[in-house]
Amino acid sequence: MVKIMANNKPGFIARPMDTLKNSLEKNIMIDVKGSRSYSGILEGYDIYMNLVLKNVSETINGENKGVFDKMLLRGDNIIFISPSGGD
Amino acid sequence: MVKIMANNKPGFIARPMDTLKNSLEKNIMIDVKGSRSYSGILEGYDIYMNLVLKNVSETINGENKGVFDKMLLRGDNIIFISPSGGD
Amino acid sequence: MVKIMANNKPGFIARPMDTLKNSLEKNIMIDVKGSRSYSGILEGYDIYMNLVLKNVSETINGENKGVFDKMLLRGDNIIFISPSGGD
Amino acid sequence: MVKIMANNKPGFIARPMDTLKNSLEKNIMIDVKGSRSYSGILEGYDIYMNLVLKNVSETINGENKGVFDKMLLRGDNIIFISPSGGD
Amino acid sequence: MVKIMANNKPGFIARPMDTLKNSLEKNIMIDVKGSRSYSGILEGYDIYMNLVLKNVSETINGENKGVFDKMLLRGDNIIFISPSGGD
Amino acid sequence: MVKIMANNKPGFIARPMDTLKNSLEKNIMIDVKGSRSYSGILEGYDIYMNLVLKNVSETINGENKGVFDKMLLRGDNIIFISPSGGD
Amino acid sequence: MVKIMANNKPGFIARPMDTLKNSLEKNIMIDVKGSRSYSGILEGYDIYMNLVLKNVSETINGENKGVFDKMLLRGDNIIFISPSGGD
Q: Is B78 near chain A, with CB under 8 Å?
């Protein structure tokens, strides 16, 4: 038995886009094709999972590569997104 | 002779999205391009097979790589999804 | 001279999706990108060729890799599907 | 000066899908990404170039790999299709 | 200052699909992903750049590989098409 | 609690396309698949993230490769875009 | 403050397709996936960035490979397009 509601409690379907909405202004980690990952604060997104991030650090093949004040990350290269703290 | 019904008994067509619906709140294994797999509890999904997972463990090339409280996994890198227990 | 009819006799066009419908509850072999193949009983499908399978065995690079009670296999990695017996 | 007509005589445009229609019940060769080719009798197709084939032989890297009574071959991996005899 | 007209004289926009129309019944060379090229007479095409060709010779990695009476070449692997003579 | 407004202050969703609008006439860095990056002044864009740039310098595998007065960069190869200064 | 107008002066958004329109009958350089580039006169284009070119020279891995009177270059392999002179 499954109920759909707007909130996020156990027993309810969590919609993928709601995970992004709940992560706004919080730190997230984004795993990207090509052994890349990005960590930063989510400022915005659209339905393609294009993300606006601030205070971003970039890791390629496990090495710290750069720091960016602001970044627009295209959604189509993303493998997964993980909120850093409790959602 | 094929009949289509909402439930999932032998002799009836199982719709792919119903497999996800029936796996909600249960543990699933997801095989992903690039020798990756993820195991966690399915909290939600959308029509693109984007998945919301919790208590996720990541395996890359057979090695345990990480644990994530929560994850939004993009559907377009998925090869297959397997429910862990009886559906 | 070509006639289109709902059945599947010689001289009539076989529609690709009918091949899936005729394979329901039967064993099929699925060849997938990345030197993978899957063999199992077809329980369902959708227009994207996403498949619901049961009693699935997985072969990667010619080696038996795993057995799955149930699997949702994404259509977009499939190269071909072959019914095991007469269609 | 170009005229468009339903038949296929010299001086008229041959529509790609007509090439498939004219190959029904005939042997065709299909070249597929990944150094694969398939040869078999075309039983059906759809607008995505998904093909239904029977009596199929598979060649990978120039080696005979298998024989299949029936096959549903996805269109999106196809490089070209060649009718074996005169069209 | 740019004018759009149906013909193809200097100073007018040449529409890509017109290049195909003007090449009907003429020899063209098609460069395809994977170090392949095809040379043959264009008999037809559709809006996806799927091509119907006759008297086709295939070159892979600079080596002559085969000759085909007729071929349906999928448009999505094409890099470029070049008419052999003046258009 | 999330509010959506046209401006860009903390606490409001930043839409990805607004990041591009706010970068017009400013220097941006674009990371592109294939170990490439481009730095130049953004003159325009469309909904596909195709960019018009001027005074562009190209870096491939960490080496300066070229300078371009003007460039139309296709959006579908972009990994991320980063404004150089404060947005 | 951003104004949108049909011309191309500083302070106005340059639309990507306008860059192509302004390059008609002029020489452009096209960088293509697979270490390829093409240089020639732009005769036409469509919304997919498919280009009609004349007097084209091809460079692969830095080596001059061929010259083509006329070419239809598919848009989906293009990385960037650069007008040779002032736009």
A: no
Q: Is D2 helix (H, G, I), strand (E, B) or coil?
A: coil
One-letter amino acid at F31 equals D
Which one of C13, C18, C48 would you mutate to disrupt binding with D, by most D Cβ within 10 Å of its Cβ? C13
**For residue F8, what pLDDT band results from cuts at 50, 70 and 90?**
very low
**How far apart are the CA of E4 and the nearest CA of chain G, in angstroms?**
10
Q: Mean pLDDT for chain E?
A: 86
Could you write out the DSSP letters of every residue in D36-84?
EEEEEEEEEE-TT--EEEEEEEEEETTEEEEEEEEEEE-GGGEEEEEES
Q: How confident is the model at residue G5 (pLDDT cuts 50, 70, 90)?
A: very low
Query: Which residue does chain D place closest to C29, by CA atoms?
Result: D71
Dump pLDDT digits (tens) for B28-83: 999 999 999 999 999 999 999 999 999 999 999 999 999 999 999 999 999 999 99
Determine contact: G79 vs chain E, CB below 8 A: no
Contact predicate G67/G9, CB 8 Å:
no
Instruction: Kindly determine whether residue E72 and residue D87, on different chains, have CB atoms separated by under 8 Å.
Output: no
Domains assigned to chain F: 16-83 (2.30.30.100)
Say whether pLDDT at D33 is over 70. yes
Q: What is the reported pLDDT for C11?
A: 53
Contact A70 F82 (CB under 8 A): yes
Q: How confident is the model at residue A11 (pLDDT cuts 50, 70, 90)?
A: low
Which residues, at least 6 apart from E68, have a Cβ–Cβ distance to it below 8 Å?
Answer: D80, D82, E40, E53, E56, E57, E58
Disruptive mutation site among A79, A84, A87 for chain B (greatest number of B CBs within 10 Å): A79
pLDDT of G13 = 82
List the 31-70 stretch of C: residues with Cβ below 8 A of B.
Answer: 32, 34, 36, 38, 43-46, 50-52, 56, 68-70
